[in-house]
Amino acid sequence: MPVAGATVLVTGASSGIGAALAPMLAAQGARVAVLARRADRLEEVLARCEGEGHRAYPCDLADLAAAEATVLQAWDDMGGLDVIVHNAAIPKRRHVAELTNDEVENVMAVNYLSPTRMTLATVPRMLERGRGVHVYVSSLGGRLGIVHEAAYCASKYALCGWAESMAIDLWHTPLSVRLIIPGPIDTEIWDLPDNDAPLYDGELLPPETVAADIITAIEGEAFETYSPDMVGIVEWKTRAIDEFLAGTASMGKP
User: Measured between alpha carbons, how far apart are the two ends of the chain, in Å?
Assistant: First the structure.
């Protein structure tokens, strides 16, 4: 789907990838709706968006009923949504033996259940209109396990599985599904409180890298995009899972 002239909703748009993506979409002629918890940050993002007709929707996606109501409100306000970029996510870096049920459920709600809830609310409308794209921003942690990130990886694995099966179900329809697999990107996810310190200390790429790849994915034909291209690591893990597990476990050894 061409971005120019499209109406695009971006979740998690108050910082990071979402905040980089919204102005880039607007610069290419899209009308943008931005959604996140922090209303003041959303207004700052909108101020960087060229053109008119953009809107902000403050919403806590941990509240699943609010997530559904908000996406439908955006649909009505904007006269329909051509693309929804499910980008919002929260981290949870905690040893699995120290996780609580509430922490796991909260991560799953924001990272997986809110996208699926918003999808189910809008797919029938998109099918009726005869067009639409759902973009799911997962993570390298949705294709391989990460030390102390069982809750986060579970939510991102779920999102990958959802997107892949959804693409199959909708293959013979006018709707498209895109899956984005970001690697280590310079966002707030590394610094949020109530998380263990990250073990990764390598290069962090700017969020604009992923934002540009999302636009390419919307306008292109490929289902899955790694940003940056780290598919080789996932392929190696699949071929040598025991070697991967042992090597990764050594990173978190006390």
Answer: 49
**Maximum Cα interatomic distance, the chain, rounded to a whole number of Å:** 55
Establish whether 157 is a catalytic residue. Answer: no
The Cα 230–Cα 140 span in angstroms is 8
The pLDDT, as a whole number, for residue 252 is 83
Angle at 181 between CA 177 and CA 185, to 5 degrees: 135
How big is the CA angle at 140 (ends 97 and 35), to the nearest 5 degrees?
95
Q: What is the mean pLDDT of residues 124-141?
A: 98
| pLDDT of 253 over the 90 cut | no
Q: How many CB atoms lie within 10 A of CB 161?
A: 13
- Cis-peptide, bond into residue 228, ω within 30° of zero: yes
Alpha helix ranges (H) inside 55-149:
64-78, 101-108, 114-129
d(CA 203, CA 170): 37
Report the alpha-carbon distance of residue 179 to residue 237 in Å, rounded.
Answer: 20
* b/e map 45-60, b = 16+ CB within 10 Å: bbeebeeeebbbbbbb
Global model pTM greater than 0.70: yes
Tell me the DSSP string of 190-244.
GT-SSSPPPS--S--B-HHHHHHHHHHHHHS--SEEEES--HHHHHHHHH-HHHH
Catalytic residue of the set 57, 112, 136, 152: 152
How many helices (H) and strands (E) are present in the chain, helices listed first? 9, 7
